[in-house]
Amino acid sequence: MLAITSLFFIVGIIIYFLRRSQKVSEDELQREEENQAYLELNSDEQELYFQSKDYLQNNPYFVGDLSASQNLSIQEKGISAFEFVKDAMLTFNDLLVVNKTELNFFKNFECSTQTNIPIPMKNEVYYFESKIYSLPNPEETLIAIGLSIKPYPWFRLPGRHAQSVSYDSNGYRRYNQPFRFTNEPPFPKLAEGDVVGVGYRTRSGTIFFTRNGKKVSETKIGGHIRNFKIKNHGQIFPTVGANNICSVHVNLGQRGFVFIEGNVKNWGYAPIEGTGPSPPVYNKFNSDILLERSEVGDDDDFSDRENDFPPDFWTSVKNGEEANNNNNNNEEEEEEEEEEEDDDEEGKGRHSVFINQDKFSYNAYSEANSNDERITLNSLVPPHKPPSYNEEHIKRDEREEEGEDGDEVVAVEEGEDVEEEEETETGIASVGPSSSLFKT
To answer: Where is the composition biased (Acidic residues) (predicted)?
Structure first.
């Protein structure tokens, strides 16, 4: 027993010293890095360097799997759920994100942006491409495309600090390296129109880069970056930054990749289309069902929820519906009778066909779906002669009207004379013997 306890004690001491040595080594590395920053960086770069260190210490990175809302968003929207979001400290005059993945940098200072959702870590490989759409001043502009934790200092390019990797447009690969390089760039330099791809293998943590559809060789710098995994299941985000005016369009899988293998193996961040429910079909008025109760199926199942409604609720509802239907039918019948009577009085030979239908739809070619009066050749009134505005026609019309008026006056006067003569004759005959009185 003493031997076993002594053995455990010795093992514990060894583990303690190993951890302490690792901690000491990390502290020593940080001190060496700070000393190098004082020696190699100018005052502005030193200020950015130490501000970034404080930023990372005060803002711990995100850990764990995707949240329920993020998973649901990817399920419903697909790749459209991903978008680049600028930091709140940046204005639209500094960085403008158009159509979720088109990044436009406007100012002459370092800034970067990240996606709203991290790498899902469900597939074996995730891959995205970035096209340098516009690069007005390539000699004075530096673009960095890569991966990093979140939150990452928005005023720094990726690859400069811990847990970040980038492919810079000047041809260098950066991995937690904020200092200047003295050797030649191992990667080809980027120009306007180039497409840079960044791939991540979730099992091994390997990162690889492509340029214009071909893998970039990294043998000069020790091969691919491996075991890029964040402690405590830290999340990894695509990150793009620049320090001058330029435009970068990112493809997370919403369209085809230039790298053919990425297309064949579907290395996008999410499916192009989501699997969420389709929008409702908008048919006739009050015909669609937008919401349904999951616990209520057929009409017979209402008996399970009798306590949810007042007594005789459904009978009163049915009676009210029947009364409304009867009133509507009576009103429609009365309207039809009135309209038929009006048509008979006018004597124009028209008749209307009224059918109950949806008031919010109209079919001009159907006889059964129209409440409007049907227009046929027999129901049309013969057209009148259109008026003429020439002087000859106007004078002739006036003469015709005067002639018609004169004939009517003569006819009226003659009619009055005839009536007076008839009255005198009848009056004399009716008097008889007393007619002599009038003679005297």
So the answer is: 330-346, 399-425
